[in-house]
């Protein structure tokens, strides 16, 4: 039973991260001020975090894998999920605080 539930969870997780990443991408298309309104010193790190989080979330379900070990480590869980969570938290915080 444990193996079957682990397989089901492993299959759902890339789809879930893809859905979250697509939602964040659409949200940024509709509300670009969430990033544009940041001070210049915070804007570049936020953009880089978004590129990492959304890029890893879109690449993984396609079955693509980076060649270099450090790139593969950043594009797979847990680091890719941490980046996606931080980026989603940043956007949600900016939206709730009226950023």
Detailed description of the structure:
By secondary structure, this protein is mainly alpha-helical. Helices cover 79% and strands 0% of the residues. The model has no long low-confidence stretch (mean pLDDT 87). Helix 1 (2-30) crosses helix 3, helix 1 (2-30) crosses helix 5 (79-96) and helix 3 crosses helix 5 (79-96). It starts with a helix and ends with a helix. It is globular, with a radius of gyration of 15 Å.
Order of helices and strands: HHHHH
Please indicate the percent range of residues in DSSP E strands (runs of 2 or more).
under 5%
Structural shape? globular
Separate helix tally: 5
Note poorly predicted spans: none
End-to-end CA span: 46 Å
Q: Can you summarize this structure?
A:
With 99 residues, this protein is an all-alpha fold. The chain has helices spanning 2-30, 33-36, 40-59, 69-75, 79-96.
